[in-house]
Structures are given as C-alpha cells and as structure tokens.
Amino acid sequence: MVEESPFDIKVRENKKMLFCTNHFQREEMSQLNREHLEGTQGRLSYLTQSNLENKNVRQAFYTFRDASTPLYNEAYNEFFGTLHTFTYIFEEHKILTAIPNGEVLEIDFKKWLKGTNLLENELTGYLNYS
C-alpha cells in the first residue's frame, strides 16, 4: 500500500491484509493528517477487528455495503458518504459493483474482454439524505 503526499511517499506492507483509509497510517506521515480523524480511525478499527480475512470476497463486499457498519456512511449533506462498492474476484474473473440501495452488478470480466457486451446500461439506486 502506498501512502503519498506532495512531500513524501511511503510504502506499507503486510503479508496478511492491508486496509486503505482516509488518513495516513505510517507514523512518519501522521503529521499530514487532517485534524478530525474519528470517522476514518473508527472504520480502520472496525476493519481490523472484523475478521475479513476469514470471509470470502463476496461476504467482504456485502460487509462494505451494510448500512449498519461504520464502513457505510450516509453523510451526503456533508459531502461525504458511500457512493459505490466495488470488488474484483480474482479466482472467478468477476467484478461486483453497486451504488447505494441498488442491485449488485456482476460482470464476467473474461467474457467482457472477449467482446460480450453487458446487458445493463446503467446502475440505479438512491442516496438517503438525512
């Protein structure tokens, strides 16, 4: 995982699992973080305690779509919130993607590369403004 700023570039490595957040996790870059980190640190804490490494890719995808978790956010009036969820299942060559409150679009990437067109023209869903 690469953490980059205009001033420095640092690499984080872990053979087990890495999580990407909205704040710098490397100690030597933490001074570049914004002042209020409660939300992003809460999501990181949830991720590290969620046993995602024991879930399959589809289960992890639905965990990120679950509005009852801190991973999903509907603070759209504050210009922040979940706009889409995306994953690639390497073993199956499949893409899963969805927007809030919408159906999951599953794409067979191998077939698409060979010229099979998608049947869907758009993703639909809606944002819950509070």
TrEMBL record:
Keywords: Hydrolase
Domain Peptidase C45 hydrolase: 2-99
GO MF annotation, one: hydrolase activity
Domain of life: Bacteria
Keyword Hydrolase: yes
InterPro entries in the cross-refs: Peptidase_C45_hydrolase
Pfam family, any one: AAT
Official protein name in the record: Carcinine hydrolase/isopenicillin-N N-acyltransferase family protein
Organism whose genome encodes this protein: Lentibacillus juripiscarius
